[in-house]
Write a structure and sequence with these properties.
This protein has helices at about 1-10, 60-65, 70-85, 90-115, 130-135, 150-155, 160-170, 195-210, 220, 230-235, 260-265, 275-285, 300-310, 355-365, 390-400, 460-470, 480-490, 490-520, 545-560, 590-605; strands at about 185, 235-240, 250, 255, 270-275, 295-300, 320, 335-340, 370-375, 405-410, 435-440, 455-460, 525, 530-535, 560-565, 565, 575-580. The protein has a seven-stranded mixed β-sheet with strand order 6-12-11-10-9-7-8, with helices on both faces. It is about 40% helix and about 10% strand. The termini are far apart. The longest helix has 28 residues, at about 490-520. It is α/β, with parallel strands linked by helices. It is built from 20 helices and 17 strands. Pathway: Alkene biosynthesis; ethylene biosynthesis via S-adenosyl-L-methionine; ethylene from S-adenosyl-L-methionine: step 1/2.
């Protein structure tokens, strides 16, 4: 009887099944090394570790043979707990294991609570934190927020002496009354010689331009406009009339098709004359006409060159640029390199095809892809004008190398020499692939409207025009500016008188300035256009190097209190050349500037 009861009592005790080691994330069954209890996760034993099954005769060996994934290591760790449950010993280890697990659980919860800031003692109700904010790590506030590589690069202080000089002059600007000992700005290419004419015209016409006329008033300047320029600026108006449902308009040698609805949106009169294209036609000696439908307006010439860089080249490609050239930088955003093509003073810094071909070949050997030539005509800063023969040679070179040509013609109307200006558009005949040639122009120089920011791209490539119209969204001209400029360009009498007066005043100031410099022993390069004297001061620098040039530049800023641009900032390979913009001063102020330059000359001569 006792034996039967003992047997039944044993049958009522459920036999536990050893769980596989993979359930507890222990070592693989092939290893005999056991992991310390400190490595166990506090939730490793959550839930039931055993479950009942039908009573059978205990035989662990067949179980292991049947399922080889079970681990002897797992059994060693579970046996004490099994013994506690079954009441068969293992009391010490069976007590330590739960205590250790409980300790690590408390440690885990304590660390988790420390990531949350304590509630504010304020009695005012606080908004509940969203799940996205509660998951933010406090470690992020230790390090500085990151910027893009582009922003990091261009946010550094400018190392170009051109920009350094502009910044220093802006801190201490010259004024005849308020600051007579300030720095006179001769480094910025502003044309202030005809500000009186521009001011008088604006005073007479501003109110009428903004309050009346075709499509003007508040409805003509407040709403959104087309990004590539309103057509009224590209084209002048004929006699006003109703918006007719016409199907085509002839402009130059082309006929353009568009619907009556589109015509009503953009035009409120019959289109008969071109506005900006007429001005460019007049400025360039009436030798070439520009089609308004090949033009895209931008906020100045610099954005126009940048947009063309986006259209013609990829990041890491390059343009060839004859030196010396404008020190401004258009490489920041497009990532297009400018490779200097060095010109020499022995040739009056004129471009030759041999130097161009050598620079092209050397760039190709370095693995650089040349996508085009960027050139200024008339040149900045020398004032050279490309001859017709040179333009034809450039066309042949571009076709032979399968590259583009961008010509900046912003000084086309600022001529004063005997040489005749020839536009790139003038030499493009029907036998040439015009899709690789592009012209940039603006009203900043010839019309003294630098602050208006009016530039234009003239291209014969339909894909370039389509892309430029989208990219100019980021450099569009304001509607009031376009309306005012449209009205000014439509005043043919004013434009004719202005161009004549502007050329006359530029010639007068330039001749006087060059003559005064020559009396100080400073000679200037021969020029026919532009607003600069390209002055040779190599005899004043010690030593004859870029270092000596920079030291002389510093003397002009500190001693003479004038800001000029050193040749190294214009990528000139010969030390001692300086760009001096004489159109920022009047004819009456020339003696003041010359006297300040005299101080530096005497200082250099006495020290030598």
């Amino acid at each position: 009887m006792g034996k039967k009861e003992g047997k039944k009592r044993k049958e009522r005790i459920p036999e536990t099944e050893v769980l596989p080691s993979s359930f507890f994330h222990f070592a693989s069954p092939n290893t005999t090394q056991t992991k310390p209890l400190s490595t166990l996760h506090p939730h490793s034993f959550s839930g039931s570790m055993t479950h009942a099954r039908k009573p059978t005769k205990p035989n662990p060996q067949p179980l292991q043979a049947h399922n080889p994934s079970f681990s002897t290591t797992g059994m060693k760790l579970i046996v004490p707990l099994q013994g506690v449950v079954q009441g068969r010993g293992g009391l010490l280890l069976g007590t330590l294991v739960p205590c250790a697990l409980f300790y690590f659980l408390q440690l885990y919860l304590k660390r988790r609570r420390s990531n949350f800031s304590p509630p504010s003692p304020s009695s005012e109700p606080t908004l509940p934190r969203t799940s996205s904010r509660s998951n933010l790590s406090t470690r992020g506030s230790i390090s500085r927020v990151r910027l893009s590589k582009l922003a990091t690069q261009i946010s550094r202080p400018d190392d170009s002496l051109y920009y350094v000089g502009l910044e220093r002059a802006s801190r201490d600007p010259y004024h005849a009354v308020d600051n007579p000992h300030g720095i006179i700005q001769l480094g910025l290419s502003d044309n202030k010689l005809c500000f009186d004419l521009i001011g008088e015209w604006v005073a007479r016409n501003l109110e009428g331009t903004m309050s009346g006329g075709v499509d003007l008033g508040i409805n003509g300047i407040a709403p959104y406009q087309t990004f590539d320029g309103v057509m009224e600026l590209k084209m002048t108006h004929g006699s006003p009339g109703a918006c007719n449902d016409f199907s085509s308009v002839g402009v130059g040698s082309r006929v353009f098709e568009f619907t009556g609805e589109l015509a009503c949106v953009h035009y409120h009169s019959v289109l008969s004359f071109k506005a900006l294209s007429d001005f460019m036609h007049q400025v360039m000696g009436e030798s070439v006409k520009f089609d308004p439908y090949n033009m895209v307006l931008t906020a100045g010439a610099t954005p126009a060159i940048e947009i063309l860089s986006y259209c013609l080249a990829d990041h890491g490609n390059a343009f060839l640029v004859p030196t010396p050239y404008y020190p401004g930088d258009v490489r920041w955003r497009p990532g297009v390199d400018l490779i200097p093509v060095h010109c020499r003073s022995t040739d009056n810094f004129n471009l030759n095809i041999t130097a161009l071909d050598q620079a092209f070949s050397q760039a190709r050997k370095r693995g650089v892809k040349i996508r085009g030539i960027l050139i200024s005509n008339p040149s900045n800063p020398v004032g050279n004008i490309l001859t017709q023969d040179m333009l034809y040679s450039l066309l042949d070179f571009a076709e032979d190398k399968n590259i583009h040509i961008i010509v900046d013609e912003v000084y086309a109307g600022s001529t004063y020499g005997s040489e005749k200006f020839v536009s790139l558009a003038e030499v493009l005949d029907s036998d040439i692939d015009k899709s690789r040639f592009h012209i940039v122009y603006s009203l900043s120089k010839d019309l003294s409207l630098a602050g208006f920011r009016v530039g234009v791209i003239c291209s014969f490539n339909d894909s370039v025009l389509a892309a430029a119209k989208k990219l100019t969204r980021f450099s569009s001209i304001s509607a009031p500016t376009q309306r005012l400029v449209t009205s000014m360009l439509s005043d043919k009498r004013f434009i004719r008188e202005y161009l004549e007066t502007n050329r006359k005043r530029i010639r007068q100031v330039r001749d006087e300035f060059v003559d005064c410099l020559s009396k100080l022993g400073i000679k200037c390069a021969k020029s026919s256009a532009g607003m600069f004297c390209w002055a040779d001061m190599s005899g004043l620098i010690r030593p004859y190097s870029e270092k000596g040039e920079i030291e002389l530049w510093e003397k002009f800023l500190s001693i003479a209190k004038i800001s000029i641009t050193p040749g190294s900032a214009c990528h000139c390979i010969e030390p001692g050349w300086f760009r001096i913009c004489f159109t920022t001063i009047t004819l009456e102020e020339v003696p003041l500037v010359i006297e300040r330059i005299r101080r530096v000359v005497e200082s250099c001569n006495s020290s030598s």
